[in-house]
Amino acid sequence: MTARVLSLFGSGPPRVSPRPEFVRHQLDPCCWVDYGHGFLTGGDTLFDRMVAELPWDQGRRLMYGTWHDEPRLTARLDLDDAAVPPVVDEAVAVLSERYRRRFHGLFCNYYRGPDDGVAWHADRIGRQAVDPLVAIISLGGPRRFVMRSMKADDAGTDAQPGPARASVRWLMHSGDLLVMGGATQHHWEHAVPKVKRAPARISLTTRAGFDRDRGVEPDAGGPDSDTAVGVGQVG
Ligand SMILES: O=C(O)CCC(=O)C(=O)O
User: Fold this and answer.
1) Which atom of ligand 1 is nearest to the CA of 109?
2) Among 177, 205, 207, which residue has the most ligand 1 atoms within 8 Å of its CB, making it the best to mutate?
3) Pairing between β-strand 188-192 and β-strand 118-121 as defined by DSSP bridges
């Protein structure tokens, strides 16, 4: 396992930033990402606590007839579970208020080092709900998070290459937040690639889609973002 890089704002008690700033990246006309640098302070403290206290599970996948360990550990919690630290409840409340959507569940992923990762995929909630929101808080790290469009998937031929797919990447630092919204789960994929070197990282993922209580989508929209920038210049 690679030594963890302590970030400037990562130590100290975990807190939601009192004035979180979100930058909107418009991926295409109907898909967007809001990025919140330093959404949480004390991310490394929270990382240590979650590594020690969460009920981590080693998932297994059947691939070509053989079972393989997933290259990360996972823990799946309800938001009202006693194992969810109050600062995470507070973070989810901030998200619910900002997007006026109810978030459900906390899916935690523990990437122990560079050999852990998750391959290209769109979240399953995109098959169950129209325009779901997927919010990811990163703890520890930093670690690269990449996205690519599912469109223009025409690789062409060697002689005549097809159009390149739009892609974008972020280096997520401890306490950063990334929210995928609009039609992103229908038109874009994301991944946390395996790399040569990477410190351990946890991602906390919560999603808003179908409203279980009302049986309808309460509000498909979100607030306007503080800043809008295009694809490709983040890193
Ligand atoms: O760890 C992350 O940042 C992404 C996790 C993810 O994409 C997933 O679990 O579906």
Assistant:
1) 1
2) 205
3) antiparallel
Q: Which of 60, 62, 51 shows the shortest CA–CA distance to 203?
A: 51
Tokens of 100: 């006026």
| Alpha carbon distance 21, 6 (integer Å) | 22
The pair of structure tokens assigned to 195 is: 């790399």
Burial 197-221 (b: 16+ CB within 10 A, else e): ebbbbbbbbbbbbbeeeeeeeeeee
Residue 190: burial class (beta carbons within 10 Å; 0-12, 13-18, 19+): buried
Q: Are 165 and 191 in contact (CB under 8 A)?
A: no
**Predicted structure pTM score:** 0.85
Ligand 1 contacts (CB < 6 A) are 107, 109, 118, 123, 136, 145, 190, 192, 203, 205
Q: Residue 177: helix, strand or coil by DSSP?
A: strand
Neighbouring-strand partners of residue 104: 207
CA dihedral sign of residues 199, 117, 173, 51: negative
In whole angstroms, how far apart are CA 33 and each of 115, 121, 152, 162, 221?
26, 16, 20, 26, 13
Residue-wise pLDDT for 9-48, tens only, equals: 677 899 999 999 999 999 999 999 999 999 999 999 999 9
Distance between CA atoms of 155 and 162, rounded to whole angstroms? Answer: 5
